[in-house]
Amino acid sequence: MRNIKHEQIPEGIDDYIFKYRYSNHLKAHGYRYSGNKQQLVERIENMFNDDIFYNSFLEFVKLEISNGKNRQIFFSRFEISGLAILKDVTTVKNNLRANELPSDNFNDLLRDDLEDGSLIYLNILSNSEEPSKTEKIELCFYKEVEPTEDYTGDKDKFTDYIWVEINTNEQYVIVKVKPHTQQYVSNYHTSKKTYEYILERLKTIFSLKRSNMIYFKEVFYKMFKEFTEAAEEPFRQIVNQKREEIFRFQDTFLPSVGISSDSDINDITNRYMRLIERNLIINDIHNYLRYHIDRAGVIDRISLTDLSGASANVLSGDSDGLDVANIYFDIRETIDEIKKLDKVWIKWFSGQIISSSALQVQQQLELFEVEELEESEEEPEQSTLLEDEESNTIITRLEVNKDYVVINFLKKYWISKEVQDYVLSIIKEFEEKTS
């Protein structure tokens, strides 16, 4: 393993780490953890001569870069033709060497004399039963990114640490990047360029070819369908309690106006009950959307391009979707006919996502973020000290492109490994259900 000890934390790495994360790491090792961020950094650097602490800190940095602020995830499937190279450890190493890259596992995340595009982390994980076969390849690339024209900060460039995972067993690659601004359109444009740069590198190194991801429109619809039906259930129960009373009324009323067919009466009555249910939802939308311990989450907004109605026109920016109230007014049946969605906004309820210890960390972040953001370039859309209910939710914006699905974690500025892994696992579950 080719690891070189470094004496300082590079500025680029420091930009990725909140003060409270340094504090937690020091506390976990039994060291004093109070003070401002600079004091914590100096305290950590002074202990780099301790090999045990230094190696644990390297692992800590790896976890921060592979998750944390890198909360914009590009998910792609790749063609089976690429497995011949990616599944064999020897072939993977040979291809890295052929591209003048290190082939042995190493962690150079604390290196500070980096050139744009440098590979600074490599971990080839072998199959426990067949060591000659790979299970996963982890890489990190250092990238210098120029701000967009509308950027108003004082940086002439961003230094990004792009995290890449290639899962050979499940045939997918994920690329994680850090959002630079709160403005979605400019941020997405920058992130997309970074993603395409990384994919070109991977194509050159491993002959990796992406699969078409448009089928994920159907996956998004499947998620919408199941999440929405779970949210509707309490309202449906209220209406069902009056089911017999409603049917008795319709059996009397409808024939009185000339509708006597049993099938027509059943159809009209069921539609009537559905209309009551939707009215209850619209009039109590807060409870429909609110945190619930027994649900994984709820659909907050959707976007689709296949409708011609004015209510579904796609707009530019991060509000280019229909909120729940719009869905229930006039287009729910149309959505169910099309069975495809371009984007979905999901509020995940963290009680279903992460352990109580991880949740405690997430809530602790809310207490530190204001102080950290005062020192950063980010300008939050709203106060990060959210209400208790909101602190129990993780909000994502999922969007499909021909070559990838992009997962944006919104509102929060640091997302744990547990949360990211959970959301990815649920998305893949729905992908499997849809196929």
Description of the structure:
The protein is α+β, with helices and mostly antiparallel strands. It has three domains: 56 residues, no CATH class; 135 residues; 219 residues, no CATH class. It has 15 helices and eleven strands. A hairpin with a 4-residue loop joins strand 5 and strand 6. Helix 8 packs across helix 15 and helix 9 packs across helix 10. The radius of gyration is 25 Å and the shape is elongated. About 10% of the residues have low confidence.
Give the topology, please.
Blueprint: H1 11-14, H2 19-28, H3 37-45, H4 51-66, E1 72-77, H5 83-86, H6 89-98, E2 106-107, E3 119-126, E4 134-145, E5 158-167, E6 172-177, H7 184-206, H8 216-240, H9 243-256, H10 262-283, H11 285-289, E7 297-303, E8 322-323, H12 324-338, E9 343-349, H13 356-374, H14 388-391, E10 393-400, E11 405-410, H15 417-434
Runs with pLDDT <50, length 5+? 309-318, 355-388
Number of domains: 3
Strand content: 15-25%
Helix amount: 40-55%
Largest sheet: 11 strands, antiparallel
| Tally of alpha and pi helices | 15
Q: Tell me the total number of β-strands.
A: 11
The best one-word shape is: elongated
Give the distance, in angstroms, between the N- and C-terminal Cα atoms.
41 Å
* Rg measurement, Å: 25 Å
SSE sequence, one letter per element: HHHHEHHEEEEEHHHHHEEHEHHEEH
Which structural class should the secondary elements be placed in? alpha+beta
Mean pLDDT metric = 84
Strand order of the largest sheet: 2-3-4-5-6-1-11-10-9-7-8
